[in-house]
C-alpha cells in the first residue's frame, strides 16, 4: 500500500498552458498539466518562481496522475494585451517585471491582440504520490493546500476555483485505486453535484506518470511538460501513461 494525495480542480474556467502557449496564441491542454499541478502546489507552499532548486526538487519528487470527470467545453477569448517591445533583450520573470517599470529607458510596451483558450465547467482530480527523494511529506503538501501561502488558481490567475481543493490522503495499492476511492465535489449538495458531473460515465479517463501502478495501461504518449528550468520556461519530454478506470468507484 502507498499513500496518495488527491484534490479536486473545478472552476468556471480553467487554462493549462502547453509548451506552445506563448506569444499571441495561448491554447490550453485538455486537462491539467503536470507542471501546472506542481506549480499550484509550489504556490501553496510559498515557493517563489525564482527559487529554482526548490522548484526542481518539487518537480522530480512526486508522481502525478489526473482523472477527467467532466471534460468541459473549450472557448476562446480575444483581447488586447501589452508586452515588452520587440527590441528589448531583457528577460522578464513575471508580468509585473515586464510592465512595472523594468522596460529599458525610453521604450514603451507594445499592444497586441491575444487569443487565449479556456475550458468551461471542467472537473478533474489530481493525484500525487511521493518518490523516496521527495522534499516534503504528502501530509505537508495537504496542509499547504488547506492553507496556501499564495492564492491558488486553475492554470491562470483569471481562473479562480469554485470549490475548495479538498485535499485528501488515501492509502491504496496504486493511483487508480486511490482515484476510485476519492469522492469529488463533496462541498456540493447532491442535485448540484449531479448537474456538474452529469451522468456517471462507464469509465473515467486518466493520464499518469510512470510508477502509477495501475495494471491495465491502454496507451503511452510523449508529452512536453516536464519543467527543466522555470526561469527560462524550458520543458523536456516525458512518457505519459493513459488508462481508464472501471465504473463503480466515486472517480
Number of helices: 6
Q: In CATH's first tier, which class applies? A: Alpha Beta
Radius of gyration, CA atoms, in whole angstroms: 19 Å
Instruction: Give the SSE string.
Output: EEHHEEHEHEHHEEE
Low-confidence stretches: none
**Shape descriptor:** globular
Number of strands: 9
Structural domain count: 1
- Strand count, sense and closure of the main sheet? 9 strands, mixed
CATH architecture: 2-Layer Sandwich
Based on the model shown, name its key terms.
alpha+beta; Alpha-Beta Plaits; 20% helix; globular
What is the topological layout?
Elements (H helix, E strand, L loop, with lengths): L1 E13 L10 E2 L7 H12 L6 H10 E9 L2 E11 L11 H5 L10 E21 L7 H9 L21 E5 L2 H7 L8 H8 L5 E6 L10 E11 L4 E13 L5
Parallel strand pairs: 2-5
Antiparallel strand pairs: 1-5, 1-6, 3-5, 3-7, 4-5, 7-9, 8-9
Describe the structure.
It is a single chain. With 251 residues, this protein is of the alpha+beta class. The chain has one domain (2-74, 117-246): Alpha-Beta Plaits (2-Layer Sandwich), CATH 3.30.70. It is 20% helix and 36% strand. Strands 1, 2, 3, 4, 5, 6, 7, 8 and 9 form a nine-stranded mixed β-sheet that branches. A hairpin with a 4-residue loop joins strand 8 and strand 9. The mean pLDDT is 83.
Amino acid at each position: 500500500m502507498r499513500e496518495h494525495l488527491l484534490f479536486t480542480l473545478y472552476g468556471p474556467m480553467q487554462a493549462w498552458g502547453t509548451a506552445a502557449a506563448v506569444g499571441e496564441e495561448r491554447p490550453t491542454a485538455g486537462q491539467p498539466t503536470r507542471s501546472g499541478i506542481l506549480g499550484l502546489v509550489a504556490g501553496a507552499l510559498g515557493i517563489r518562481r525564482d527559487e529554482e532548486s526548490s522548484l526542481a526538487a518539487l518537480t522530480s519528487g512526486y508522481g502525478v496522475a489526473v482523472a477527467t470527470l467532466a471534460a468541459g467545453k473549450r472557448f476562446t477569448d480575444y483581447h488586447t494585451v501589452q508586452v515588452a517591445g520587440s527590441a528589448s533583450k531583457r528577460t522578464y520573470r513575471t508580468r509585473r517585471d515586464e510592465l512595472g517599470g523594468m522596460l529599458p529607458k525610453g521604450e514603451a510596451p507594445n499592444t497586441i491582440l491575444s487569443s487565449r483558450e479556456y475550458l468551461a465547467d471542467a472537473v478533474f482530480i489530481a493525484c500525487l504520490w511521493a518518490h523516496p527523494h521527495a522534499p516534503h511529506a504528502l501530509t505537508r503538501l495537504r496542509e499547504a493546500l488547506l492553507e496556501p501561502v499564495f492564492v491558488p488558481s486553475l492554470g491562470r490567475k483569471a481562473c479562480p476555483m469554485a470549490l475548495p481543493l479538498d485535499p485528501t490522503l488515501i492509502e491504496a495499492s496504486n493511483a487508480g485505486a486511490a482515484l476510485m476511492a476519492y469522492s469529488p465535489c463533496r462541498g456540493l449538495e447532491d442535485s448540484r453535484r449531479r448537474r456538474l458531473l452529469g451522468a456517471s460515465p462507464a469509465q473515467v479517463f486518466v493520464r499518469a506518470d510512470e510508477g502509477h501502478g495501475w495494471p491495465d495501461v491502454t496507451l503511452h504518449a510523449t508529452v512536453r511538460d516536464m519543467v527543466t528550468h522555470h526561469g527560462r520556461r524550458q520543458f523536456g519530454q516525458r512518457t505519459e501513461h493513459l488508462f481508464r478506470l472501471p465504473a463503480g468507484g466515486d472517480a
